[in-house]
Task: structure prediction
Amino acid sequence: MEKILEVKDLHVSFDTFGGEVKAVRGVNLHLEKGETLAIVGESGSGKSVTSKAIMGLIPNPPGRIKEGEILFGGKDLAKMSEKELQSIRGSEISMIFQDPMTSLNPTMTVGKQIMEGLIKHQRLSKTEAKSRAIELLKLVGIPNPDTRVSQYPHQFSGGMRQRVVIAIALACNPRILIADEPTTALDVTIQAQILELLRDLQEKMGTSIIFITHDLGVVANIADRVAVMYAGKIVETGTVDEIFYNPQHPYTWGLLGSMPSLDTSEEELIAIPGSPPDLTDPPKGDAFAPRNPYAMKIDTELEPPLFKISDTHYAATWLLHEKAPKVEPPEAIKKRMKGMASSKPTMVTKDGERNG
Amino acid sequence: MGRYIGGRVVSMLVTFLIIASLTFFLMKLLPGTPFNNQEKMSESQIQQMNEKYGLNDPVPVQYVTYMTNLFKGDLGVSFQQDGRSVTTIIGERIGPSAYLGFQSLLIGTIFGLLLGIIAALKHNTFLDYGSMIIAVLGISIPSFVIAGMMQYWVGVKWGMLPVAYWEGFEYTIMPTIAIAAAVTATIARFMRTEMLEVLGQDYITTAKAKGLTSTAVVIKHTIRNASIPIITIMGPMVVALMTGTLVIEQIFVIPGLGEKFVSSIMTNDFPIIMGTTLFFSILFIVVILVVDVLYGIVDPRIRLAGGK
Amino acid sequence: MSMRQEQLPDLTDDMFQPADIDSSKNEEIAGESTGFWKDAWRRLRKNLGAIIGIVIIVVLSLLAIFGPMMNEYSYHEQDLMRAKLPAKVPGLENVGFLGLNGVDIRGVDQYEAKGVDEYFWFGTDEFGRDQWTRVWQGTRISLFIALAAAFIDFVIGVAYGGISAFYGGRVDNILQRIIEVLVGIPNLILIILFILIFEPGILSIILALAVTGWIGMARIVRGQVLKLKNQEFVLASRTLGASDGRVIGRHLIPNVLGQIIITTMFTIPNAIFFEAFLSFIGLGIRPPEASLGSIINNGFSSLQIYPHLVLYPSIVISLLMIAFNLVGDGLRDAFDPKLRK
Result:
């Protein structure tokens, strides 16, 4: 597999009145060609900031990339000029956003909004761009694209708008698509359609996807690999199977435990106590320790390194140290993991061979 | 859309009728007649004049006559100027006022938009604060103060521009600045707020994510969307312009409608006061209607809602 | 994703003992909680413009109250022997560029020429009346008119808007139709007609300003109440059996109050301006009473020779308008941080 994107030790901070908010504190990740990487975490864990940093869309001021590299095609995006970034945005890397109701310009026809990128990056004429826009609308499954192309966003439903947003993002055949919670604002039935569309398009176009979400159900559905983020760091990363069947980090257990499924009864839902730490003053040691029922003394003093579990599976918790007591995930989560195993084949509809 | 405009025109006519009636009856309540403060007239002369202008008829008769004439476009005749018709006088006087109004509106809008856009794009910088200080001053300092200061310094002391009268372009500069100051300030503040609002919208991020240049994002997505709501403050703007011309024409001795209106107040020339009042009201009502319709045309979201 | 396991320092066994972590700490809220008013006050205090505005208002109000008493002249005391004197201030008379040395624009020391020994801080007008006394007397009247008009707007507007929104239905419908008609009439016209009918004077000016002024307030209050009325905390309170009075007193008024204060704050400079404006079109305060507007208007006739007659009242009215606008802006930012960018 070919690595097309590599993020190394990324630090992003925001300068606010309350002080410097260290939103991303040393993230390492990579993306392979044609794969889908899911970044999972609570709100404020830094997953969106990471993706915006890759796009070069961190508003500056107040935000800035303090350290680290974002390597794409042999170049470091973190050090590129705005002009160079503009030529990459939308053509090599594009992004779709959470809320389709607000991410389209209400006073411009959807056709024009799709055409903008095509005219800029592929230097198409207006008529060429328009016919390409119609093709794209058709590709993302919008009926009557010929008439729809000259309509305004408010004439579309939420799901249809998200399809338009996807069409805009895919207009120039980007190599990487960053999807920032693209289904969160949609109805459940529409969510499934959009996920299926993304999977479909990925197969057709070979795009790599970074999928940002807080919904593990969606992750199981779409991702090849998963990175779990907490307080600006990646705490566990592995393939979907590894994260779902053999999670190692207590935070991942917590996430899995708080995910309802059909066969969990009420008392088996485990909430993670407390709330994420204040990132203006991140705690010493493991940021998760205050919420971790398995916390050890070392957690309050030293930050855990990434422990290797397999070639693809790493987790940052002292529980994996040889001197640590052997801790088993809570019963409920173990049961859930088994449940997941039995329900999984039915969840994966299209590409069973990938997880099979 | 057609039905919507139709409805609006009807309610416009109703408003106009109310204003016309109100003006008429309020005038009737005025103490004294326009002729009794001119010492040179004898009692019988005053009677004669009252007779001539129908001021001795019962009020309802006068009302009916007035309203009928109104719909024929006849606003009556001036008491003071030997029976010249009010319509003619308004026609003569409208030129300088309209010129001054349009020029001020145009200049004020251009500078206001520029100031607002710069302030928003350079948000929280020296340029932003500077623009907003100018805007607060423009809104706060009354037009007659600006006019007075300019007359004294620019006109009298430095002798750069004519102090008064209306005899060519250079005569319009100071009056225009005096009126345009408030327009500039109002539009600048409004535009800044709208720009900042739009700049925070998700679709601006979408536009940036497409790889558009910053200039394209600002022009095609931000300024365009931010300037649409400016239309909504055009109504109050026109009122401000009317207020402005009334005072500024006085100060600069400009032979406009506002100056005539004020001098008619001094001489109790009812038909002119009524006529000008109605004229200003019609202007205001029409502007409001045009603004609403225009807004519907420019903003696609409203266009559709109105069409249902 | 490098492996850094090897570089770790020696770790002792006891470090892997369970840690005592007081999980209740997690739920604590950092920082003290601040109420709506306290929060607004804190934000207002940080707003430099608003603070400057408040200081100017306080200073000008004090001068409006005590200024006329600060010298022995009264505002209507005429003496043609000392007419049209420029400003002369003891101490500052030696600072040339300030123009406070009693020398007029032709370079003649009018005090010497007319043999006047006294000092007139803002000079005198064509009847020899002391401008200092008149300007502050005028400020007093302008402020009084503006405050009175704002108060009437406030009372009528809040009552009208509140009733309209709170009772809704037919009441609302009728009240709103009335407003629609009134809004169609330019307020300028109404004010002028109103003053034409009643003799120009303080009372008729106040009433004229109030005739149209309350509409803005009524609309804002109605809009706010309508918005709040359907919000869930009001519904919750009703569900718990709260009476109309309690809902209005505990939920609606406190939440609308911010908007009301802001609107009132902007009404005041507006009223000051309109009062001055009326003087300009000959419908202002009649002599010997004076307002800032009428003093400036009088001064205009001799602006070219005696600019001091326009200059000082113009500075005062401008400062007053700037100050009220600054405080209004500051309050808006303080009460509604969402609007602040």
